[in-house]
């Protein structure tokens, strides 16, 4: 009676082992749900591919944004300055030129200076009459006085241009500080240099007028010395001497 029981126990144990073996068998790599085959390894690979594609798209979007920003900056750098002071500067320069062109008697012309200076100062004819010598001295004096007057006119014009230069500098500095790009800043700087060039031109004109007046005054004094020696020689040269005459102080 005990043997059959052992057989039954053995059979029951074998059955239990067989069931355990069935449970321990690994699951297949895929499953089928409603006719759709699901492969976990293929699904994970697709997820990785989609993630990489999304990253590439994001990188391309960033590149496009950077290119757009660069184009916007280039457009700003190419924007011209909406302010120009060329016309006022040219007007001031023309005014100074007109003052120089109004020089009296002996103008700023090399050919004319050579001719007039030689006639009035360099090659004075000392053989003419006393009256002619006096007339020549008076003409030279008028030329010197006119040169000083011309200098004062040029100085007044230069001083008048200072206010315009100050206004131009203020406008250009403001435009430079609010410039949206490199081109506007460069153009503002170039116009500031133009203002400085105009001021240097005014300074050159003023120094030229002062030098002209001083040169003519020195030439007039040198010619006066030569003429004075000639008149003194004539006065001391023996001749008829003093001849008294009738002098009438009052008219009837």
Characterization of this structure:
The structure is a single chain. This protein has two domains: 31-77; 86-236, no CATH class. The chain is rod-shaped, with a radius of gyration of 54 Å. Residues 13-30 have low confidence and may be disordered. The longest helix has 55 residues, at 182-236. It starts with a helix and ends in a 16-residue tail after the last helix. The protein has helices at 2-24, 40-77, 86-101, 110-122, 130-177, 182-236; strands at residues 31-33, 36-38. It has six helices and two strands. It has a two-stranded antiparallel sheet. By secondary structure, the protein is mainly alpha-helical. Helix 3 (86-101) packs parallel to helix 6 (182-236). A hairpin with a 2-residue loop joins strand 1 (31-33) and strand 2 (36-38).
